[in-house]
């Protein structure tokens, strides 16, 4: 059983979360807390597998509590934002910096009538998050610090993987644990970065704008939500929710709708496949942390077309799922930690 | 899963889901948020330090945010949107807490009102559709008058209201607190009452057992002497019956204690802090201060006093009304205050203290006080009493007039005066078994005191006999019951007093209070039971013929036309189905002690026969007329009346029309045929033909129940005596 701690100051919302998770075969609520301070105490007392964390709470808010928990006894935290209003979303993004695994919107509207429709989404998020490998944070240091861990093989980092003259476009696919990695990559590579970067990040519907804003502000790169027909220019382009992000023949962005059967939309597969088709060896594909196998198929296509394919290494992944799938299918050319990826990308500009 | 089935029409199901516990939780929580939000806004107005302001705003922001979130998850988009707007405003304020001025707070409060309106309209729908419980605390603070901005812009509004509420860190929910909807508590209390009633059937069992025992004892006596082997058997059975009787008594005693404990615990669970009420009044003061353009400070020091939810709810309007009176008429304009050497800022202050089962709430202002000479003038204008009498009234007696219906110290046509609505206040408080009085008034200010019991769900009454009638007297009025002998009484200034702890206490017989009857002659050495009651300011001994029992009863208000009668709290239904009047002896005694007495002396005491088949009407009319100084006889129908007339001398007959055996018309015909006696018919029939029939039957007056008032009836009777 996955043991859940609910942190929420509203009695109403606690009750609703409790109901959403009641009778779940995999999840069980082991404790509840009404503010950040209680949350820290409950985490220490119950060692839950995952924490569902509210943001605005008296005494100690959810962000501060997340920072503290990540310092004292790290555990996967899913932050629940009240709404998709700019203010709420911006705060939710702070939660990523604080070490939260993912951010979701609280369920809305007549939840009681749609428990069985809403519950699966919440469960999926919590189960995914519970699988995350969480590392203790020291001071304000990033969870992605590679200190003390085995780094990627020196032979690979030393060699010049990417050549400026060859490289025209980069695609990145990320899921759970992706936002902090992206933030690190974009802050450490040169800015403005001369090559367009297309990003598929699985994120709760409605958060993409706030996510783009957060990346833009915190990294100094130009980060935008992709729009259909847009000329592909240098900068970071984020796929909007509910649409795939692909490139067309004339250096333009396409946003095709997903098919019903697809689990992920946006998904890494159409992105990498379109890169393979239109840019082939002039494209690079990067598969980052996340649960499942999204992007693996596309990355393989890209590799077969001659493109450069990189996967995040196991040690630095919050969830070693998608990179692992890519490696198993033989799609991975290089396996690097975020520092390694930064180095590789930086080489392009020199 | 219960919820899983509801998946068809959302709006329809939304309502059926309204009964869900989540909504109960949400309802309570939202109410908390609303109360706290309003308080934050008001506190903000009077807080200067940046840190404190920031904290207030942060707290309010969080509340608005939570409310928004909650409204969203339970599916109330209107409320969510309103809360969102409020949250937006508060978020702006967080940027610069010092920039939040009075106008900003006005804006915030206006936005807050929208949120509350959204909450209430949802509440209202829910109630209308689903009969949900409406526990409404803290209740909405309505603006008493529309807020007017000061007319001239160059005149900055003064700091209108500053409030200081001490001693009340808002207690957030305890770790293991359970929220229980108040209607559930009501049901529990009701069920506990049912248990009490079902306990009474134990009386029958005891009686039957006692009868059995007597029977056996009889058998034993009869067989005593004979050498019957049955003897030992009877002795055996008798012994067993005695033992069972003893066990039964023990068990019933224990059960009674347990039920009582259960009941008092449930009652305790219904208690809410009085501070909830006084907090919600701050807004009223603020709005009033603003609309009147008078700076008013509001202070509430009510400690941690708890009161039944029903009492708190019922007290809100009276307190609000009294505050309005104080602000309107008590507190002077700035110029007048300056001239009187008072601080510019007026003060409205509420304090409370608890004595046993009673809570005394005082409301004072530091305004100009009650104008007693104006009250005298108004009484004189009524023309009932002459100037000499009026001038003898003490201030306390004069103050009583303030609480009479339609009495105001300001002439009609002008703005409302001091007494306006105080009758309503008194009425409301009386319904709670409480009392309102003017404690003091001078040019330095006025203090009113409201005394209410902590709980009201049921009333404990003492049933007493006096003058052949049984009456209920609320136990809360009775300090203790005692017996006193005739020779213990002394005369002091023409009236009887009983020394209690070396203090003379006014002694009066209940029959005298109620029926104006002479004190019965009691043999030397015989003792009277009496009740020591807490009068206004002093104790009083009320003698009765006998004490029957003490019981817990549900008090029923008397309907029209019996409302508002002096000394009557209400009526209760006795176990045998008869109606018993419950008396406020203090009120009765005071009525007799003051203006009622001159009436007795001035009028030649007429004798009246009241004929009515309703015991309640009889009892009430008896009170009306005895209070006015008449000797009252009663009859239950026309035949009864006819028989009485053959043995009694009366001056007037007042009769109902619809009665068994002999109706009012026929009674009138018979009377007119034999006696020269005025008869007044009182009836519910309003049709002209009935009136004609009544007058044709010889009735001297025909009073329709829906039009008569006590005074009207008294006036008519007076014409015939």
Question: What does this 3D model show about the protein?
Answer:
The complex is a heterodimer of chains A (350) and B (721). In chain A, helix 2 runs parallel beside helix 3. Chain A has 12 helices and 14 strands. Chain A has 350 residues and is α/β, with parallel strands linked by helices. Chain A is globular and about 60 Å long. In chain A, the strands form 3 sheets. A 7-stranded parallel sheet of chain A has the order 8-9-7-6-12-13-14, with helices on both faces. In chain A, strands 2-1-3-4-5 form a 5-stranded parallel sheet, with helices on both faces. Chain A has helices at residues 11-21, 36-46, 62-72, 86-98, 115-130, 154-158, 178-188, 208-219, 268-278, 296-304, 322-328, 338-349, and strands spanning 2-7, 27-33, 50-54, 77-81, 102-105, 169-174, 197-201, 223-225, 236-238, 246-247, 253-254, 283-287, 308-312, 334-336. Helix content of chain B is 48%, strand content 20%. Chain B has 22 helices and 24 strands. Chain B has a 6-stranded mixed sheet. Chain B has a 6-stranded mixed sheet with strand order 11-15-16-14-13-12. Chain B has a 5-stranded parallel sheet with strand order 21-20-22-23-24, with helices on both faces. Chain B has 721 residues and is an alpha/beta fold. Chain B starts with 9 loop residues before the first helix and ends with a helix. In chain B, helix 4 (77-95) runs antiparallel to helix 5. Chains A and B meet through helix 1 of A and helix 1, helix 2, helix 3 and helix 4 of B.
List the topology elements.
The complex is a heterodimer of chains A (350) and B (721).
Chain A lengths: L1 E6 L3 H11 L5 E7 L2 H11 L3 E5 L7 H11 L4 E5 L4 H13 L3 E4 L9 H16 L23 H5 L10 E6 L3 H11 L8 E5 L6 H12 L3 E3 L10 E3 L7 E2 L5 E2 L13 H11 L4 E5 L8 H9 L3 E5 L9 H7 L5 E3 L1 H12 L1
Parallel strand pairs in A: 1-2, 1-3, 3-4, 4-5, 6-7, 6-12, 7-9, 8-9, 12-13, 13-14
Antiparallel strand pairs in A: 10-11
Helix pairs in contact in A: 2-3, 3-4, 4-8, 7-8, 7-12, 9-10, 10-11
Chain B lengths: L9 H8 L3 H26 L3 H25 L2 H19 L6 H29 L30 E5 L16 H42 L6 H40 L1 E3 H19 L3 E6 L4 E3 H22 L3 H6 L6 E10 L2 E8 L6 H11 L4 H6 L2 H8 L19 H10 L3 E8 L2 E9 L5 E8 L2 E6 L3 E8 L4 E3 L2 E6 L2 E7 H6 L11 E8 L4 E5 L2 E8 L14 E6 L5 E5 L1 H9 L2 H7 L4 E5 L3 H13 L3 E5 L2 H10 L4 E5 L7 H11 L4 E5 L4 H9 L4 E4 L5 H11 L1
Parallel strand pairs in B: 1-3, 3-5, 14-16, 20-21, 20-22, 22-23, 23-24
Antiparallel strand pairs in B: 2-4, 5-6, 6-8, 7-8, 9-10, 9-17, 11-15, 12-13, 13-14, 15-16, 18-19
Helix pairs in contact in B: 2-3, 2-5, 2-8, 3-4, 4-5, 6-7, 8-9, 9-14, 11-13, 19-20
